[in-house]
Write a structure and sequence with these properties.
Oligomer: single chain
Shape: globular
Low-confidence stretches: 143-147, 206-214
Radius of gyration: 22 Å
Largest sheet: 8 strands, mixed
Structural class: alpha/beta
Distance between the termini: 34 Å
Number of helices: 15
Order of helices and strands: EHHEHHEHHEHHEEHHEHEHEHEEEHHE
């Protein structure tokens, strides 16, 4: 069995409705069962769910509305709480708790909002609560128009450093042509190498059923984002029997899209590219040993701060020899670190009046350079 510790499942509208206009509850129950089984087996699973607009349309009796952004936002506002209520009740059947997380792509592009979203989702996963993530359709405009949740799911995969991203749809996977229009269309079972071939990009088309706002092109775009972050991607049919548990177990279903980089290499590139080189955190010998052993950077091991930085910045970590030893995403600003450096983690809240965690830099968000 392939052990996938962190998994993002993207469920599109056509999967939730079975291609119809209403939620297909039997299918949603089965997906909840599979996800619950994965959680029970120790996997950490995020669900990125479309469907709010379709549920809103159903709740309002399928009104004839203009195809405008405000109309879609109105439907999403009506549908989102109803969709979450469905998820909450169905996952409760299998003894699982869920939480709603509304994001826009800006939340994972901006460093400060990125770290807040990451900490919230990781805390939910650590407590075996399943995050149900949707784009915040009532305030987003770009996403609701062109990307739906496909690209958002790839950004969430990057956010939690997922091992696996599963994009569920109403097709078996990516085809060489539209299978509804061409008898010669063949399933593309495997994509690997550093670049996705141009002919595959040309073969990816838009949605045909009008239920969602994405299509195979946005799924391929999402796969490209995720694979560049070290995440393995699978595009598969949501109605396939036990599709999620089988893919998580390593079965070759759908289109398998392999990453040319491992997660560590991708994280290192991300951190190095965003480094704040005019600032640095100076650590003592004890902290250096802790980082070498895979630990996090705690305030007690910090001896000095050079320059200024904000929470969410990527800052070099230096030893006494004035050479960069590591680099990472900070949980506290330079002003806050100056107040807590050399102190125990349990003192942070008393010193600052708040705490974003025991670590100045968590080991998951750090790369040791030497």
């Amino acid at each position: 069995m392939v052990n996938k510790k962190r998994i993002v499942m993207k469920i599109d509208t056509s999967t939730l409705t079975g291609g119809g206009e209403r939620l297909l509850l039997a299918q949603v129950v089965d997906l909840a069962r599979q996800i619950s089984e994965l959680v029970a087996n120790g996997e950490k699973v995020c669900v990125v769910s479309s469907g709010a607009i379709a549920v809103g349309r159903e709740a309002l009796g399928f009104p004839d509305l203009p195809k405008s952004i405000p109309a879609k936002q109105m439907l999403a506002a009506v549908g989102q709480p109803r969709l979450m209520n469905v998820y909450e009740q169905l996952f409760e059947i299998f003894g699982c708790k869920v939480a709603q997380v509304l994001l826009t792509r800006e939340d994972v592009r901006d460093r400060r909002r990125y770290i807040n979203a990451r900490n919230t989702i990781n805390s939910l996963l650590d407590h075996k609560v399943i995050p149900i993530i949707n784009e915040n359709d009532t305030v987003a405009t770009e996403e609701i128009g062109i990307g739906d949740n496909d690209n958002l799911s790839a950004l969430v995969a990057n956010l939690i450093e997922a091992d696996l991203l599963v994009l569920l749809t109403d097709q078996e996977g990516l085809f060489t042509a539209d299978p509804d229009r061409s008898e010669k269309a063949e399933l593309i079972q495997r994509i690997d190498g550093e670049d996705i071939p141009e002919e595959i990009w040309k073969a990816a088309g838009g949605t045909q059923n009008g239920l969602g706002t994405g299509g195979m092109l946005t799924k391929l775009q999402a796969a490209e984002i995720a694979r560049r972050s070290g995440t393995h991607v699978v595009i598969a049919k949501g109605s396939t029997k036990n599709v999620l548990t089988r893919i998580a177990a390593g079965e070759q279903l759908g289109t398998q899209i392999y990453s040319p980089f491992n997660t560590l290499e991708s994280r290192k590139r991300f951190l190095l590219a965003g480094a704040h080189h005019k600032a640095a955190i100076i650590i003592d010998a004890g902290a250096k040993r802790a980082l070498r052993a895979g630990g996090s950077l705690l305030p007690v091991g910090i001896s000095a701060i050079k320059g200024d930085f904000d929470r969410g910045d990527i800052v070099p970590v230096r030893g006494s020899e004035n050479k960069d030893y590591a680099i990472g995403l900070v949980n506290y600003s330079s002003e806050d670190v100056r107040r807590i450096m050399g102190r125990q983690s349990g003192e942070i809240e008393g010193l600052l009046g708040f705490a974003f965690g025991d670590e100045v830099i968590h080991h998951n968000n750090m790369t040791v350079l030497r």
